[in-house]
Design a protein that fits this description.
CATH architecture of one domain: Orthogonal Bundle
Pfam families: HTH_3
GO molecular function: DNA binding
Distance between the termini: 70 Å
Helix content: 40-55%
Protein name: Transcriptional regulator
CATH class of one domain: Mainly Alpha
Radius of gyration: 26 Å
InterPro entries: Cro/C1-type_HTH (IPR001387), Lambda_DNA-bd_dom_sf (IPR010982)
CATH topology of one domain: 434 Repressor (Amino-terminal Domain)
CATH superfamily of one domain: lambda repressor-like DNA-binding domains
Length: 116
């Protein structure tokens, strides 16, 4: 696990102190872990995965698989979310618009009536 922590620090081009700051643990904790004096606590691991959600937990704990859960190719493409266009949005036709009023910060307003 120590090697994998070093890999993460190196991959993200962090120093031990900047890595500690980024995950929100004392700098001495990182120092003690990197020298082998202490093992990472559950709190340390949870904070690491909160700061770096793309790290593969299975890889970190067991050393199996790839370092990242999402490949770089998938990251570049981004999520495949559907974007609804103006025409696709469901509009309830059961309620008719009676009046539209726009209030301005200076206390004035404008009222619009639909053309029927």
């Amino acid at each position: 696990m120590l090697d994998r922590i070093k890999n993460i620090i190196s991959y993200y081009d962090e120093t031990a102190s900047s890595f500690a700051d980024k995950i929100g643990v004392p700098r001495s904790s990182i120092s003690h872990i990197l020298t082998g004096r202490n093992k990472p606590s559950l709190d340390f691991i949870l904070k690491l995965f909160e700061a770096f959600p793309d790290i593969n937990l299975h890889w970190f704990l067991y050393g199996k698989g790839t370092m990242h859960t999402i490949s770089n190719k998938e990251k570049e493409q981004g999520p495949n979310k559907e974007i609804k266009t103006k025409n696709e949005i469901n509009i309830r036709n059961s309620v008719a618009v009676k009046n539209i009023v726009i209030f301005y910060e200076d206390g004035t307003f404008e009222s619009y009536l639909p053309k029927i």
